[in-house]
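Notes, p. 3: input format for complexes.
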Amino acid sequence: MNEKEKKFHWDSKIPDGPLEEKWNFFKRNSKLISPNNRKKFKIIVVGTGLSGCAAAATLAEQGYQVSSFCFHESARRAHSIAAQGGVNAAKNYKNDGDSVTRMFRDTLKGGDFRSREANVYRLSECSIPFIDLAVSQGVPFNREYGGYLENRSFGGVQVSRTFYSKGQTGQQLLLGAYQALMRQIHLGNVKLYTNSELLDYIIIDGQAKGIIVRNLLNGQLEKYSAHAIVVASGGFGKIYYLSTLALGCNATAVWRAHKKGALFANPSWTQIHPTSLPQSNGYQSKLTLMSESLRNDGRIWVPKSKEEHRSPGDIPEEDRDYYLERKYPSYGNLAPRDISSRAAKERIDLDFGVGPLKNAVYLDFKDAKKTLGEEVLRARYGNLFDMYKKITDVNPLSEPMLISPSAHFSMGGLWVDYELMTSVPGLYAIGEANFADHGANRLGANSLLQASVDGYFILPVTLPNYLHDKVNLGLVSTDHPSFLESEEKIKNEIHFFTKANGQKLVDDYHKELGKILYDACGLKRSESGLKSAIETIQNLRENFLSGNIKVPTDAFSKNAELEKAGRMKDYLELAELMCLDALLREESCGAHFRMEHQTADGEAKRDDKNFQFVSCFEWSGDVSKPILHKETLEFEYFFPKDRDYK
Ligand SMILES: Cc1cc2nc3c(=O)[nH]c(=O)nc-3n(C[C@H](O)[C@H](O)[C@H](O)COP(=O)(O)OP(=O)(O)OC[C@H]3O[C@@H](n4cnc5c(N)ncnc54)[C@H](O)[C@@H]3O)c2cc1C
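Output follows (646 residues plus flavin-adenine dinucleotide):
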């Protein structure tokens, strides 16, 4: 790490006033752009997931000219479509004691007091109108017999605040946002560029002015300028290779923004989800998530004996260890994800694991079937049960599911202020691409919410603060030297990959990197493990950059290996930053569990005195020597305390 740790000099722009009033105060005092002037502004939105679709549709509805980009062949293939379990809102429909304040506290505590109070409160506050918006769009949420929207619980909370559409909530929410986007496309307010991968940002005089994308069908580089750019490119958990994310998810859009001046915050905080399907062989390229919602009714256990050979149905109650219920009686199977994943790994590492590779635990619906009946369970989780059956050929209502922890969600991402602007003026980051709301561990069902409110409610209010004094400012020409220089650099990179003529497949690098990261910078981290991982990553990167890669030579038609090579180059740099971040944080908090910092009973031991900050990294030109800045976190309304789920 660069010795020169620098003073944090960015303004987080947290509004004054009492917590409950901050967002209202902010909205009241935000600048406005008159409807006639909005059409003079061109906004680029990179990404068409829930956050990107929501932002593009809302900004276009307001009158801005929007260009929307995604690397998929259709906007609705964004990874939000895969989200299953639900979306949180403090509506208190169940009358079980929920409120905005309770949701704020649950989220702050769930993130182990490593997020900003003001952001978390706003997220909770905006959850209420968001559900109304989704219902107006026609999102088919599950309902109770009386017509009210149904709610269930997710990990880390003791109320039911999760709204859901069976096990397809992300799909239904994205379709809502997608139809809003399509409406604007048909009205001519949004221009959609599919099969277009962002490869660089154009920053002129310190401000974001344009992007360069590669048309993935014909290989042409295309240049676009704009008055502001929004990064909505999703998470980078796929860096672990085996993860719950789709194969195409990657870090390129956030990493290249970082290399152009945007601070990268808390890069090492990755959520390892407790209920994914276990790895079953060495050839798999992804793992499948089984939604956390299943933990509402399923019970997690392993046999008490390491020598157990009976099939699960034959193992009597007294020989089962319901370890979450035993260790965390008040939250039981709904303990938060970081805690549940570590507990599963602990059982597996101690040889209590089950399944052919002994790398899983059971998720069992036997009791729920007796109390609720198959019909109710099917109504709640039918598509998840079908998915499990299709993949494993086992009916989870007859035999327990096998589940295991797997890389899932990036709490870290581009640093943004309260306005969702990165440290580069005019460059915004929304949804999973930013670091903002979840602290060191995201609570289940808070991410669809964050992506949605960032796009629908927050960005449209904050953007005019940047644009209002630029009404007559034209666009930068795409022949500006900054565009040409960047274009040249990308051409050279593509040339390097297609001419490399090496032996090793990009996927082989990715697999190796994923294993290094999962072992050293996954569920458990240690000083020695991280130091040796950094060295191994540096060697792997050196090998990659020496040209030992096998990529088909045609750069001017669809070339998936070429796409992967560019993404891999970025992963190999980001991976080192993740390890450096994990190494400097000499505490355990949320998903970041440093073996050296645990309580006597193996729980995470936070160090608020020395680490109550967001680690923000500035690109120094040398990936091994990032410049660290610390944004101190202040708590005025809910003071950090031990995170106890027992
Ligand atoms: C299996 C699974 C289940 C989940 N279930 C839930 C749940 O039940 N509840 C919950 O709250 N959260 C859930 N999550 C998390 C949640 O789905 C995501 O955090 C959220 O959908 C992210 O939305 P997004 O808009 O930020 O990004 P995404 O939906 O990932 O969209 C990213 C977009 O960026 C584009 N893109 C990326 N890079 C580039 C580039 N270089 N150039 C051009 N385009 C680019 C992609 O094409 C895509 O359009 C789940 C996640 C997974 C993996």
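The mean pLDDT is 96.
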